Amino acid sequence: MPPSVEDRRSSFGHCLRQWRDRRGLSQLDLAVISSVSQRHISFLESGRANPSRDMILELATVLDIPLREQNVMLTAAGFAPIYSESDLHDPQVEPVRKALDFILHKQEPYPAVVIDRYWNLLQSNSAATHFMNLLIEPQALQKFDRVNLMSLMFDPQGLRPFVANWQEVAGHLIRRVHREAVVEGQSEKSIALLNELLAYPDAPQSWRDLQWEWHTPLLTVNFVKGDRCFNFFSTIATLGTPYDITLQEVRVECLFPADEVTEENIRKLPNF
Questions:
Q1: Are residues 125 and 245 in the same domain?
Q2: Dihedrals φ, ψ of 155, to 5°?
Q3: How would you write the pLDDT of the chain (272 residues) with one tens digit per residue?
Q4: Most-buried pick from 72, 199, 217, 254 (CB within 10 A)?
Q5: Which among 76, 105, 138 is the end of a domain?
């Protein structure tokens, strides 16, 4: 049985209230930055009023709600989703795929990867592949059905043993995953990833508390393999003004050497 008008109102109102709370806005704050009155926002959240599709999109825009979650809000209010979710191999996104290839190639000889919203590895350059194989035996990677960078970082059979400043890096990454889960919408996948990382027996209790403050201006990840050190910082790039869910969630993470020793060691790796 399809949801009744009352159920749809209540469901949409719940979504709207959640996103307003996540952004730290009162109903008055939201009214000020949108064309919707405070009274009407109150009615929407309580289920006493129905939103139009244009109103939903306006509120979603000012609340900076991800496209995937905008589709959820539209559906909750009884409208059809309007944002598609393409595959990166689809012909219509070929220009984007070429741009990603270009970025990965130009990042050589430093590692770069393309990941999705849940940190699944979609693509990497040769430098990232060679560096990964330097640290982890190829057969060890076979245990992962699909390479997830966060899982790989935390798994004792993954990258974790090679991270010299593990506690600092792990705490930062946990806060990052936790914050993204809250800011971008607490989907089942994002919560499952967070719970997976927190399930390791030596995860301190402090990791379970959402923290918004960073104590260092720039985090470096310090890898050690034998007598070689690789200290990296990273940049993350996203696509501007996408209207497709997949494209909005694609990220390119590039690693850069934090010191001259790392730069020299990277250039000594095979094929460089």
A1: yes
A2: -70, 130
A3: 444 444 444 589 999 999 999 899 999 999 999 999 999 999 999 999 999 999 999 999 999 999 999 999 999 999 999 999 999 889 999 999 999 999 999 999 999 999 999 999 999 999 999 999 899 877 766 666 678 999 999 988 889 999 999 988 988 888 888 888 777 766 788 888 988 988 887 777 776 666 655 556 678 999 999 999 999 999 999 998 889 999 999 999 999 999 999 999 998 887 65
A4: 254
A5: 76
